[in-house]
Each structure stands twice: as C-alpha cells, then as structure tokens.
Amino acid sequence: MLRGLAGRTSRRSLLSILGSVLTGAATLPLLPVARAAGSDQPSPSDPNSGETPPQRTGNPQDPGDPTKCDYWRYCAIDGSLCSCYGGTMNSCPPGTEMSPITWIGTCRNPADNRNYIISYNDCCGGVPWGRCACQNNLGDRPVVRPQNNNEVTWCFGTQSQSYTCSTAIILGVAIDQK
Amino acid sequence: MNKRVLLGICAAISACAALPAAAADFPTPLPAETIPKVETLPQKYPNSWAFLNYAGDRIELRNVGSDSREVKGELQAHDSATLLVAEQRPELYVIDTVWSRGARGTRTDFITVYDKQTLNVAGEIVLPGGKRALITAMEGLTTFTDDQRMELVFNFTPASSVTVVDLVNRRVLGDVEIPGCSLVYPTGNRGFSTLCASGTLLSVRLDAAGAVAGRAESKAFNPLDTDPLFTASAMASGIRYFPSLHGRVQPIDMRGDEVKILADWPLVTPAEAAASWRPSGWQILASDESKLLYVLMQPDAHEGSHKDPATEVWIYNVATKSRIKRLRLARPGSSISLTHGTEPLLLVQAGERLDAYQPLEGNLVRSMDLPGFRSRMQIETLR
C-alpha cells in the first residue's frame, strides 16, 4: 500500500508527499511530536465511559484505568476503547485485526512526566456496539492533514475496513520535551 | 354499575359491540381501513423540515418547524453515510458502505438513489475500488457539481482521490487523483476545490465527461501549524467562509473557475481572543446564504477543546465584517444549521436534544429529542 501511495504522489510538492507518506508511517512521528507536546490541558471524558469495573495496568509507572476515557494514553483518542471489548490498551480483541496504518499523538504520562508518542491503531472487522466511547481531541487537527485527525476510520491494510475499537500503543518517548 | 365501569369490563372481554349505550354515543362506526397503505411525502418538502444525519449511522427526515415533532421518514445508513438532496430532480442520494457479512466479507461502496416522494429506491450506483473515505459524516466528503448532474466522492486509502459520478445516467465516470489533499467543495460550473496539506487549495476543472480539464493551485494560505481552518464552511452571497481554530474567518470565492482566496478577518476582538473565545463544535457554521454568518463559539478554549460543545452562537454580517448578535444557548451545542424561508430557525444539536431558536430574537421556540444520538450530527436543511 505504501508503494502505491508513493507512486500516486509523484506530481505533488515534496511537502505534500511527506504529509501523505507520514500518514502511513507510524514509525516516523515527527509532525505530531512538534504539534502536541507540551500541552497539559485536560480533555473532556465521555460519560459513556463509566460502564466497566475499574481496571489497572499493574504498573505504577503506567497509572490509570485503561477502560476510562481519562487514562493518560487516550489524550487524543476518538472511538471505543478496546479494553472494553476483550482487548487491552495495546492489543485488539480476539477475532479482530489491527490496522498497521494509523495516526499518532503525544500524551504526557503523569507518573514519570514524560511525553510519549502514542499510536492509535484501530482494530477492525469485529463487532462495534459503542461501549466505552471516548472523544478526546488533544492535538487533533482538521482532516486536511489526515495523519493528525481522529475522525478517520484507520482500518487500512486489513481484510475488513469496518471499525471495531481503538488502542493506544507507546511508540517511544517524544524527542522535543518541554 | 356505572357505564364507565361496564365499558371497561366489556373492553376486557371483547363484548363492547353488544353494548347499546356505547353505540348510541357513536352512531357511525369507524370506517374499514385500506390494507396495505404506505405514506408518501410531498414533491417539494417544506423548508421547515430537515435531514438529521447521526454520524453516518442513521439519517432521518424531521419536521423541525412545528410542535408536532413528526419524524417524516428514515433512510438506511451504515458507515459514514452522507446525503445529498437534489433540487433539480426529485431524488435523494446517500453514499454508504457495507460489508457482505456484517463487519466482514466483501466491501461495497454505493450511492443509493431515492425517490423523494416515496423514499423508494430508484436506482443504485456502485463505486468501484473500496476506496471511499470512511470518516465521520461531515461536509466535504461529497458534493454536487455541474448543476447537480454530477456527484463527487472523496476517497482516502490513505491515498487521496475523487470519484466523479454522472447522476443523470447513474454511472461512474472516473477518478481524479489529488495526492496530499482532502475533501471536495464545488467550484465553478463543473469542478471542485480541495484543501491540501501544504496549506494550499487545489482547484480542478472537469469536462463534460468528468475528465480533468484544468488544475490550478493557490499559494499557501492555510496555516496548518499555527491556526488551521476548520473544514466546515458556509456560503453567504456566493462566497464560501471557513473559520479557523483560533477565530479568524477565511472567505474564498469559488464561483468561477478561477478561485480567489480573499482577505481573512477576525471573528473575535483582541479582548475576546485574550479570553480564548474560539469556534468549536462539529458543524460549527451556518448562514442565511445572503449576509449573516452563524458561528458556534466557546470561551476559555484550549488545545483539544475545538470539538467541544459551544455555549454561544455569534452572528456576523459578512458585508460589514462585524458581529451583530451574541446568542447564549440554553444548552451547549455542537452542530448548527439554519432553515430557509421567511422566518428561519436556527437548529442546534445539543447532546440528545435538537433545539430550534428564533436566532435574531434569541428565543428558544422548541426542543426535540434525538433518541440514540451518540457522537456527531450533520444537519441538512431544505430549500
């Protein structure tokens, strides 16, 4: 899919090409790091999130409840939490497929006060039913830069593009700490 | 035993027909009714009706201008479905995506053509390639052009392209690649503009066969790193207005083939900017199509709050570039639209309510329920 994308972007400016390729490049998180780092404003949580018993990661350096919208990694998530569907914050529920292509944000971990690059990989092809729906928009931007937008169904390169739920996976520590 | 109690007993044992006193009260029986019977709608819908699109999962036609609060009809919608309402033909068009086995199986993207009076399916156009953009239903995913003879569909795979559809002959004409650009806005007689990740606007002219007849790209004007434009827009006096995250409005003249980026102007004073008044919500803009622009605004805005419900609607005269009114909402709202006609109503989706205001008087005249509403709403008012 990335080869096809590159072939189709040959007539555009270098900046456009970079923007498009970054869409599919979860390992090259340059733009979102510069964009979102340093913002400590809380994001609103969706009231629908409080439907599950509390869960913990068991790691004091990874605090919070992964079934709730205010878990620190979910600062830019817009979707249903896989932790409520049989998956976890970094794995898909059984029977679904994780999209390798996604968008990324940057969230501050309150335990170690570091900014982490978070990959919001969607899980696809399963049964969506709206449980634990969260709308957090820290660092979200209009779809003109799709790689910075959380309204897109990020189910690409999967057998089904039907959305099920979203994960929030640590890619690494953001470079430009503030 | 009085008559009322006797009536109740009779009803319970299905013997009411034998009761002379009841028949005397109603000398004429209810007439036999027709089976089957299906409602139809008027050829031209009243402009006090509106389509409500529940994030592309469900589309319903509601009478928003009357206290009867009637649902007039429903259209199928599955995934990121978007609606176009034709004025040149008695048709509605819904773009949708399904899989043959629910959430798995063969994907089909298709346009359903509905008859406006019966809501029966009048035709179907299958879009090839499984590439239609699956994004929460919003402006820019599709549009008419060529005097509503063509429909344009934004695709995202994540490569960007636009599928050109001939609605008269109900067939796909072809694709236009728009790498690095997103969404479609109608431009000129037959064409579209699209917002690009380099901060420019790419405008594409089409020939009668739907092929590219010309391309023109503006200089960069959309500061995506500092104050990007929302992708929601509204038309006033033929000019399309896009608000920015921090409270500018960017007019663009897309009437001719040569698109003109006009001078932007502020929606907020320096004092209001200091209080972080900014546009926010989902469908954040409405207009009366002549001179008044309506913008959802929130105070104390911050990073990540740009889709939060807004507390006020600010009304601007685009001719004088000045605000004429602040309307404080009864409930914070996320999507707005204005009905057409002599006494327009401002419709505000506020959580699970749809509130209708007389905007210039500031009166909340009615509030309707939105059962099952979960995330985002796109309101389509009718001419």
Any chance you could write out the topology, listing elements then pairs?
The complex is a heterodimer of chains A (178) and B (383).
Chain A: H1 2-8, H2 14-23, H3 30-36, E1 78-80, E2 97-98, E3 104-108, E4 115-119, E5 122-124, E6 133-135, E7 163-166, E8 169-173
Antiparallel strand pairs in A: 1-6, 2-5, 3-4, 4-8, 5-7
Chain B: H1 3-13, H2 20-25, E1 49-54, E2 59-63, E3 71-75, E4 82-85, E5 91-101, E6 104-115, E7 121-127, E8 142-145, E9 150-156, E10 160-166, E11 171-177, E12 181-186, E13 191-196, E14 201-206, E15 212-217, E16 234-236, E17 239-243, E18 248-253, E19 260-261, E20 265-266, H3 270-274, E21 278-279, E22 285-287, E23 292-298, E24 310-317, E25 322-333, E26 335-338, E27 346-350, E28 353-358, E29 363-369, E30 377-381
Antiparallel strand pairs in B: 1-2, 1-30, 2-3, 4-5, 5-6, 6-7, 8-9, 9-10, 10-11, 12-13, 13-14, 14-15, 16-17, 17-18, 18-19, 18-20, 21-23, 22-23, 23-24, 24-25, 26-27, 27-28, 28-29
Describe the structure.
The complex is a heterodimer of chains A (178) and B (383). By secondary structure, chain A is α+β, with helices and mostly antiparallel strands. Chain A has one domain (2-173): Sandwich (Electron Transport Ethylamine Dehydrogenase), CATH 2.60.30.10. Chain A has three helices and eight strands. Chain A has helices spanning 2-8, 14-23, 30-36; strands at residues 78-80, 97-98, 104-108, 115-119, 122-124, 133-135, 163-166, 169-173. The relative contact order of chain A is 0.23. Residues 1-49 of chain A have low confidence and may be disordered. Chain B is mainly β and 383 residues long. Chain B folds into two domains: 58-220, Methylamine Dehydrogenase, Chain H, CATH 2.130.10.10; 230-383, YVTN repeat-like/Quinoprotein amine dehydrogenase (Methylamine Dehydrogenase, Chain H, 7 Propeller). Chain B has three helices and 30 strands. Chain B has helices spanning 3-13, 20-25, 270-274, and strands at residues 49-54, 59-63, 71-75, 82-85, 91-101, 104-115, 121-127, 142-145, 150-156, 160-166, 171-177, 181-186, 191-196, 201-206, 212-217, 234-236, 239-243, 248-253, 260-261, 265-266, 278-279, 285-287, 292-298, 310-317, 322-333, 335-338, 346-350, 353-358, 363-369, 377-381. In chain B, the strands form seven sheets. In chain B, strands 16, 17, 18, 19 and 20 form a five-stranded antiparallel β-sheet that branches. In chain B, strands 21, 22, 23, 24 and 25 form a five-stranded antiparallel β-sheet that branches. The mean pLDDT of chain B is 94. Chains A and B meet through helix 1, helix 2 and helix 3 of A and strand 6 and strand 12 of B.
